[in-house]
Give the backbone structure.
Amino acid sequence: MKKRNWFRSISRLFLWSHVIGVIGFYIVLWLRTAPAKEDRAAQESSEPQNPAPSKSSPLVSVIVPARNEERNIRRCVTSLLEQDYANFEVIVVDDGSADATPRILEEIAQHHPRGSRLFVLRLRDNLPPGWAGKPHAINCGTQEAHGDWLLLTDADTWHAPGALSYAVHKAIDEQVDLLSLGSRQELPGFWERVVMPMAYLGIMMQYPPRQVNDPSSPVALANGQFILIRRAVYDALGGYARPELRDTLLDDRDLAQVVKRQGYRLRMFDGRGLVHVRMYRNLRETWRGWRKNAFLGSRGGLIFTIITLIGLPVVAIAPFLLPVLAWALNRFPAFKHQPITPSEVALATLLELAPLLAYRRWVDKELGVPWYYALTHPLAGAIFEGIIAQSAWRVLTHKGVDWSGRQYYYKKATRAGASPA
């Protein structure tokens, strides 16, 4: 009898420890990831105008690296040319595109009313040794830039007419050296709506917005879809020609880390009303895209990745399967005569799912995902379990990371989590 009571107490200890752990995880997650209200950018919907340049409108060089972006490049460049800011140029770096990207850019330059502001720099499809594609393209673009500020953005973005004006004036008013805007994710497909909330959760957990914007915190992050940086600061740091930035596959985060480490002011704002992006269009693209940086982007390196691989099923999948797990546990002979009761299982399940679904509902609302996708949370957890495992395996075994038709063999895997806690 004592032995049975002992087993019974152990089973309940596991159950309620799990309940406390899941509740605590989502409470801590909320406290870490909720952004400050003052970091939300204003909604901008004004039509493009042609104001005259002034001292408060320094020249901005917009740099767009593009490689095989025929699906996106017209929308992106057109939105940039239609900014209501007075004084800017757009430099698109065509990084060896083999699709219709060059033709589309030529059409825009010839037929758009502001086509004279567009300069297209065409690169060959062979990288110099020691470079990754995007840092090299940006570096080449900056060499052609004349602006006092640089806006680094991606070819799959769309910019509201007031985006550049807002960012420049905000940076000048608040004396910011690098200003980055978070973007609205366009998620029309099923798999995008399943996976993106889990990706958002992971990024915000490791890079809390309040810590990113805190000058006393070493945590640094920028959104590569919109990075506005003073040209003088970029040049002082060496830009992407800086040795540790040349081969990075996390160009936005690593640039932000250098900026903050050198004592310059970094700020991130919620710019979802100003910048939109559609990153991926199916599960295959989503998997490969996040596989590229899931391991390299971890602040804790290998140790944190192992903890994540163990903990993710515990906090994302197990709460939905708690009745099944309890039933399976009760099948063991040691627990069969004194099983965990259905009422205990129901209460535990309710206590775990309440904070989980509340937090997931907040994330879904932030991303514009319908509420019922919260029920796909365990599916998202299972997908990311595979993405993280494969990402770590490919880097640690030197299998390489494939992106934009190129293969990268990252030799500094131990530096993946170099960012201090």
Q: What stands out?
A: Residues 41-52, 413-421 have pLDDT under 50 and may be disordered.
